[in-house]
Amino acid sequence: MSEDFKVQVENRLNDLFHEEEESTDDLKSLGDHPLKGLKAMLLSVEWEISDDSMEGLINELKTLEDFYQNDKFILNFLRLLHPIAKYIKARKGESHPRATGLLNSVYNSLERVALSKDMKRKEKEAILLRELEKFKKLKEDVIRRREEKIEAPVVQAPLTEPGGLTSPGQFAAAVEELKELIREEFRALREEVRGWRDSR
Amino acid sequence: MAIVNLKKGEVQAKIVYYGPGRGGKTTNLEYIYRKFHDRIKTEMVTIKTHGDRTLFFDFLPIEIGKIKGFDVRIQLYTVPGQVKYDATRRLVLRGADGIVFVADSLVVRRKENMLSLKNLADNLATYKKSLADVPIVLQYNKRDLEDEGIPLLSLEALEKDLNSRLRAPSFGASAQKGPNVVQTMKKIIVMTMDSLRRNLM
Amino acid sequence: MKKHYKVVVGGPLNYVFNREQLTAIEDVLERDLVELGVRSVFLIDMAGNIIANKGNGEGRHDIYSLAALAAGNFGAVSTMAKLIGEEEFSLLFHRGREESIHFSKLADDFLLITIFGKALSLGFLRLKVAEATGKIAAILEC
C-alpha cells in the first residue's frame, strides 16, 4: 500500500532528522499536570530499578489509564508503557538494554502529545506509530534473545501482552486501526489537493 | 598496598610524601616532573587551593621499567600539610608502600616537623601499621636557604628530633634547586621494592 | 582455579593476581559491561592502583589519574558518610552531559569504576554492576 509506504518513509525521516527535544529532568515544567506522578516514577526508575520502583511505576500507569480512558491517544501511549514496565520488573538485570530507554522515549512522546495545545491529530498518530515501531522492534529482539538463550524463557511473556490489549490479536488490531486512521487522513488530503488543483 | 599483576607482569606500588605544610612535598614532585617528564611521559595531577597549597593530593605516576622481568610502576603522592586536612592525609596514606618524610629545615618550623611526624605515626596506626613497619626515608629540605642567611636547624639537630629512634636513611636536600630530590626518590623506591620482594617471597 | 593470596608479614597488605583470575575478571568486565555499551570500566584498589580495565576503544582517558582520583574521591565520600553517622552510601555517581561515572565498592579493598554515556540508564547499569561485582568477588574469593 503506497500510503503505508509513505508513512514508513515519513517515520524514517523523522527518526533520522528528529531534533531531540530533551525532556527536562525536573518536574517543574509539568506544573500540576496529571502526568507529573508518572514522570516522577520514571525518574526514580531511571536511578534505581527495583521491585518497589517498578511497582510504583506500574501502579501509576494503572491510575492514569483510568483517568485518561476517554483520550485514545494518551491511553495508547500508557498502554505501550505498561508491558515494558512489567517486562523490566520481571527480568530486571536480564532485560534488554534498550527497554529502559524505550520507557523514556515513549514517555517523552506522550508528554509532547499531552502538553501540546494544537497538535494535529495526524502528527499525534505519527508520533504514536513511531513509538509503536520501536516497541515492535524491541519485542522482536527480545524474542530473538530468548531463542538464542540469552534470556531464559518465561511462563508468562509480559512483553507480548500489553496492558489492556490482552492478546497479540487485539494489539495487532489496535495497530491496524491506527494505520487505517492514517490512511483516511491521506485519502482526505489527496481529495483536498485534487479539489484545489481542479479549481485552478 | 602493592598490586602484582602476573598476567601483565606488572608491579604497582604507592609512595607518599608526608610532612608539615609548606615543607616542600609538592615541590619535590614538581621538580621530578619538570626534570624527567620527557622520559616519564606521564602527567602530574595536582589538586590545589587558590593559595597554591595542596588541597587533596598531588599525584605523579612513574614507570621505572623492567626489574627482574616485571614492569614496575610507582605512584608518587603528596598529602596536604595543613593541620586541618588530617582526614584527607589519612585517606591518601591508605595503601602506602613507602613514605618520604619531608621535614622543613627552618628553625621556626621545628615544632611542626615533630608534630607532623607524630601525626604520621597516628594515621598509620589507623591502618594498624607503625613507622617501623613501612619503608621510610627522611628528607631535610630547604638546605639552600642557608646561603641566604636564613636560620636553619642543623642536620644533627634534625636527626636528633626526628630520627633518633627510627634510624631511617636521611638526606639534606633542596626541592627548589634539586640537590638530593632524585636521590631521595631513588632510595625510597629501592627500599619499597626490596620490602615488597621480601614480603612476597 | 588458583587462589590469590594475601601476604601479611607484619607489613603492608599486598595482592597478587594470577593469570587465570585476571583473565576471568577481564571477561566479566567485557561481557557484562563493555558489551552493554559501557565506555570504560576499571577495577582498582583503595590505594588507587589499577587491577584490570576494559574499554570500548573510544576515547583515551588518562586511566591512571582517574584511578588515583577515584580512590581519593570514594575515600573522601566514605569518610563523610561515617561523619554523618552512616555506615556507607549506597550510591556514588556523577552525571555529566555526555558521560557519567559510577562507583561501586567490591569487598573491603576494591572499587569498580564505570564510565558510560547517555544511552544507558543508571538504574539498569546499577543492576549490571551489582551482578559483575558479585562475579568478581567470587573470582577473588573475597
Keywords, separated by commas or semicolons:
heterotrimer, B: 201 residues, alpha/beta, Rossmann fold, 8 strands, 27% strand, globular, C: 142 residues, alpha+beta, Beta-Lactamase, 5-stranded antiparallel β-sheet, two-stranded antiparallel sheet, 7 strands
If you had to describe this structure to a student in words, what would you say it looks like?
- The complex is a heterotrimer of chains A (200), B (201) and C (142).
- Helix content of chain A is 70%, strand content 0%.
- Chain A is mostly helical.
- In chain A, helix 2 packs antiparallel against helix 3 and helix 4 packs parallel to helix 6 (121-147).
- Chain B is built from 5 helices and 8 strands.
- In chain B, strands 1, 2, 3, 4, 5, 6, 7 and 8 form an 8-stranded mixed sheet that branches.
- Chain B starts with a strand and ends with a helix.
- By secondary structure, chain C is of the alpha+beta class.
- Chain C has a 5-stranded antiparallel sheet with strand order 4-3-7-6-5, with helices on both faces. In chain C, strands 1-2 form a two-stranded antiparallel sheet.
- In chain C, a hairpin with a 3-residue loop joins strand 6 (99-106) and strand 7 (110-117).
- The radius of gyration of chain C is 15 Å and the shape is globular.
- Classes of the chains: A mainly alpha (200), B alpha/beta (201), C alpha+beta (142).
- Strand 1 of chain B pairs parallel with strand 2 (14-17) of chain C.
